[in-house]
């Protein structure tokens, strides 16, 4: 993971987990520690602060109505539709300061994202 992230994202990248309880196990925490991966505290149940949720929604929208005859065809469809434009992802990134403020204003409660 680290070589890929460093080569693709550069030094100082932040590894974001989704707060799945199994990621908090001692075994997983030790794995990260041995590899010198710094983890950031992240609020639980916070899809409004994770742009990947918007990416998944876009992928789902692109696949809507596309039926596959078998697993190979579905994989091909996924690979084809995964080519989501960088401009879409940039729009999601640009929305983060506003989203963060909405969460702060809501005192950490659920938001509409």
Domain unit count = 2
Q: Name the beta content range.
A: under 5%
What gap, in angstroms, lies between the N and C termini? 29 Å
How would a crystallographer describe the biggest sheet? none
Mean pLDDT: 84
Rounded radius of gyration (Å): 17 Å
Number of strands: 0
Q: What is the subunit organization of this protein? A: single chain
Q: Could you state the order of secondary-structure elements as H and E?
A: HHHHHH
Q: Helix proportion of residues, in percent?
A: 40-55%
What is the count of helical runs?
6
Protein name: Transposable element Tc1 transposase
Organism: Araneus ventricosus
Pfam families: DDE_3
GO molecular function: nucleic acid binding
Describe the overall structure.
With 113 residues, the chain is an all-alpha fold. Helices cover 53% and strands 0% of the residues. The chain has helices spanning 2-9, 26-34, 51-63, 71-81, 86-94, 96-105. The two termini are 29 Å apart.
Q: What are its keywords?
A:
single chain; 113 residues; mainly alpha; 2 domains; 6 helices; 0% strand; globular
Please give a quick description of this structure.
The chain contains six helices and no strands. It has helices spanning 2-9, 26-34, 51-63, 71-81, 86-94, 96-105.
Please give the structural blueprint:
Layout: H1 2-9, H2 26-34, H3 51-63, H4 71-81, H5 86-94, H6 96-105
